[in-house]
């Protein structure tokens, strides 16, 4: 029997240049947090329109530190979308606060001013809003609303590097945002993340929080010609990135614009090919911005087959698709939560799937994928 060639849902764009950069970091002797991390912080912040960058071990730890920075404590409520990877809600529990689930809009999969306001209470201290799958939320509207309510806004930009809102990078104007460099994202360092902020004081505090609360970094101690006796100013964490990761990240960052352009080209072709198949609604740009298409998802809207039937048939035909974005409130970890109605969230997580999109995708691959969907549409 012939072996079916599988079309992966995602492949990180890693090559010899990244390997050489990692090797140079190793040869330099700086394998922990050092000068390459500092350079990556500066260049990434500039690329996403932020004032300052603080590299961390993951986006999840970045979200945790963002909530510590906002002084979120037990007894506080933080509004989050259930329609997100579970780390978004988990970060709220890390600080002892209560995640309160808001619904999302159907077109973007993002929270809105209206869905947040519907679950806001006198205990609400912050909102974590997600640029879901790279689709930017309405930054202008939600930033204005949270300012008016007097609560914090953490932007979960895990998937948003290269996306834009109102003509600027998605991170422009964010008081605090957390980013991911997991292999499923456009640019990767294997694992790792970044927190961007608009305040130098906030950046200083975050750098202390990620490094055990020390008032001077290892790089600064190494650079000093005199003995440095560090102090530990608060109870903090070990959430550092390594220089090996940062070396890879610097190479990846140089590819970002090209990767976004390529993904948008493939996404436009998907949208064109799907336009005459009844019952399938592909993700698109919102009116106020452009997505990097970190994920290309399709919503089933009266399609002949169920989501799971579509995934099963695609897998049988060599296509590695995925279920749509998860709903945290439906997972066992949140069985004790008592959210209000989340009809759009539950529909999206039940009736959507993610199609392959990566730098090695070909038009022939897309034609094959669309062909399978066409067959299912007429069965």
Automatic annotation (TrEMBL):
Identify the InterPro entries for this entry. Answer: DegT/StrS_aminotransferase (IPR000653), PyrdxlP-dep_Trfase (IPR015424), PyrdxlP-dep_Trfase_major (IPR015421), PyrdxlP-dep_Trfase_small (IPR015422)
Q: What is this protein called in UniProt?
A: DegT/DnrJ/EryC1/StrS family aminotransferase
One MF term in the entry's GO annotations: transaminase activity
- Going by the entry's taxonomy, the superkingdom of the source organism is recorded as Bacteria
The answer on whether this UniProt entry bears the keyword Nucleus reads no
Q: Which one Pfam family would you cite for this protein?
A: DegT_DnrJ_EryC1
Keyword set includes Phosphoprotein: no
UniProt keywords, alphabetically:
Aminotransferase, Pyridoxal phosphate, Transferase
Q: Which family does it belong to?
A: Belongs to the DegT/DnrJ/EryC1 family.
Q: What are its cofactors?
A: pyridoxal 5'-phosphate
